[in-house]
Amino acid sequence: MKISKLLTLVAALMLVCAAPAFAAGQSTLVPKISSFDFFVDYSGSMMMSHEKTGKNKMEMTKKLLSAINAKIPALGYEGGLHTFAPSTEIQPVAAWDKASYEKAIKKLNENEDTFARMTPMGTGLQKATYAKAMKRKAAMIMISDGESNLGSDPVAEAKLLLSTNPGLCLHVISMADKPAGQATLDAIAKLNGCAVTAKGPELLANEAALDKFVRDVFYEEKAAPVAAAAPMDEVIVLRSIQFALNSAKLDATATSILVETAAILKSKKGSVEVAGHTCSLGTDEYNQKLSEARAKSVKDFLVKQGVESSRLITKGYGESKPKYDNSTEETRKLNRRVELSFIK
């Protein structure tokens, strides 16, 4: 079996940070958009309890914004945060980073007075003139309970906003607890074919759904191109070897893969670096020792399969050489790996 075939056969060596897991195949994250803005309903009804969950709708919104912010990969986005009812700019659309955006989220108050705070949703959409300056492709993510009881028709205003801003997509996260509010949000979402819709309470309760929402709005995964390598300049990435929690012991899946790896190494000449890597969870010291222990486990097994020990040079890199951003569990899994590199 050739090394190019092995690259598609084996999967990433799991370096445990919290609990063991399997990594996906090699891929790269590509942004779907250049800029985004969260457009948050700040009306009196959003300061009230959600009828089904019993929780304050704005408090849930803040938790959801923080959860989404934590999962957005660092792919050079611009991001902003605005409210309507009333219309305010919490953070202008500018270069996004997690820390500053989290500070902006904390400025939202879940205990605003509900008395006489009506919901002019249509007027809020009308005032979202900043959308014209957003880099394309752009995403406006509305979070609302859909209650609109003042001003112009929100569906008509949303249609006008989209028609005058090509390259803008309007996504909807529903905090609705009344049928009329949900119907308004559904009608807005149907205005553009690119819309991603979700219900806020469900995103908070289901991390898989939250991951999917972030992926659907912000990025896509594409297979990383495999560059042609000269003979003696090849890298084998082991992608499906699992360790038990806090253990460097290889399981049955790992050993079966390494048997094939050993056969390939014995068919070639030259020294090989066995490099262990981790994700960013845990201390630097812990991850360094963990990466070294896992690399050594792989080497020891390969030696037992007949690969000369003197050819195998173990090296632990800890978390120092990530291939992907460590902001989501998916990308952290891709960073938990072992690579075998032929040394010239």
TrEMBL record:
Cleaved signal peptide residues: 1-23
Cellular compartment(s): Cell outer membrane
Gene3D superfamilies attached to this UniProt entry: OmpA-like domain, von Willebrand factor, type A domain
Residue ranges annotated for the OmpA-like domain, each copy included: 232-344
Keyword match Secreted: no
Keyword terms: Cell outer membrane, Membrane, Signal
InterPro entries per the UniProt record, alphabetical: Bact_OuterMem_StrucFunc (IPR050330), OMP_bac (IPR006664), OmpA-like (IPR006665), OmpA-like_sf (IPR036737), vWFA_dom_sf (IPR036465)
Protein's UniProt name: OmpA family protein
Organism whose genome encodes this protein: Nitratidesulfovibrio liaohensis
